[in-house]
Design goal:
Elements (H helix, E strand, L loop, with lengths): L4 E6 L4 H13 L2 E7 L2 H11 L6 E5 L5 H14 L5 E4 L14 H27 L5 E5 L11 H21 L5 E7 L6 H4 L5 H11 L11 H13 L10 E4 L6
Helix pairs in contact: 1-8, 3-4, 4-5
The structure holds NADP nicotinamide-adenine-dinucleotide phosphate.
């Protein structure tokens, strides 16, 4: 425990956040805390991890709410007194352009996908400053630079890239690195959770997308995305900050 890095992963109960937890557990040198909103996803994640679930602290909270961010701070302060890494993976998507999307959908996406990263990082900064070779990894998207799918999502992810660069520049003086990982489509629960697709429809969509990828398939959270996140969290990337890492099976070529 002494030399282990303490890492908080937002949205650790599903998709890329969950795949990252599975991957970090295999590496063995991480203390892992997850935060997400719903009971259901927490139970599902614990069930999938089996015995390993007791190696992860599953907090319940909404990272777009100030009082929940403060609770997360208190919990980590009480147990570890520091934080070595923060993976901001929690996000939502609702498909639609300016003609379809409501102001409420726009505000929700901007609040959770962008403002919450600012809010949580700001709240946890005193603990992050106490970490060793601290690293913040923001999960952005290939959509930060390509229009399509959801106007609010694309705009929020473009914001995440600049937030990453700005924070990277600002926090370097504390030896805190800030980078983003920008995937193309990864097989997760996101479109079923948003109600944009049924499970069957999403599975069909995933298969249809495969030929558009030079590497012949959409991504797998644990196998294809988590290793890059772990590289950025680890001491293997000590001179890397403000970088935007495309992990996209070649989709954006
Ligand atoms: N899947 C893709 O194709 C893809 C591609 C590019 C980028 N990404 C990015 O990768 C990240 C993860 O996406 P994913 O596909 O893995 O999504 P996902 O499977 O839908 O998982 C999202 C996670 O975030 C949590 N969450 C959502 N809102 C939250 C909030 N306000 N506070 C705390 N937790 C919250 C969810 O749990 P609760 O609902 O229980 O809170 C869940 O654990 C996102 O940033 C996404 O934009 C995904």
């Amino acid at each position: 425990m002494k030399n282990k890095k303490v890492i908080l992963i937002t949205g650790g109960t599903s998709g890329i956040g969950f795949g990252t937890i599975e991957y970090l557990l295999e590496q063995g040198n991480y203390e892992i805390i997850s935060v997400s909103r719903g009971d259901k996803n927490i139970s599902l994640a614990k069930g999938k991890l089996g015995e390993k679930a007791n190696q992860v602290i599953f907090l319940q909270g909404d990272v777009s709410k100030e009082e929940d961010c403060k609770k997360i701070y208190n919990e980590i302060e009480r147990k570890y007194e520091k934080l070595d890494g923060l993976v901001n993976s929690a996000a939502i998507i609702k498909l639609g352009g300016i003609e379809e999307q409501t102001l409420e959908e726009w505000n929700n996406a901007l609040n959770i996908n962008l403002t919450a990263i600012f809010l949580l990082s700001k709240t946890l900064l005193p603990l992050l400053k106490k970490g060793t070779n601290t690293s913040i990894v923001n999960i952005s998207s290939m959509s930060s630079n390509r229009a399509g799918g959801s106007i609010a999502y694309c705009a929020s992810k473009a914001g995440v890239d600049m937030l990453t660069k700005y924070m990277g520049q600002e926090l370097g003086k504390y030896n805190i690195r800030v980078n983003s990982v920008n995937p193309a489509a990864v097989y997760t629960n996101t479109y079923v959770a948003s109600g944009d697709y049924t499970q069957e429809g999403y599975d069909k969509w995933s298969e249809e997308k495969a030929p558009l990828y030079p590497l012949g398939r959409i991504g797998d959270a644990k196998k294809d995305v988590a290793p890059t996140i772990e590289f950025l969290l680890s001491d293997k990337s000590l001179w890397t900050t403000g970088a935007v890492y495309l992990v996209d099976g070649g989709k954006s070529i």
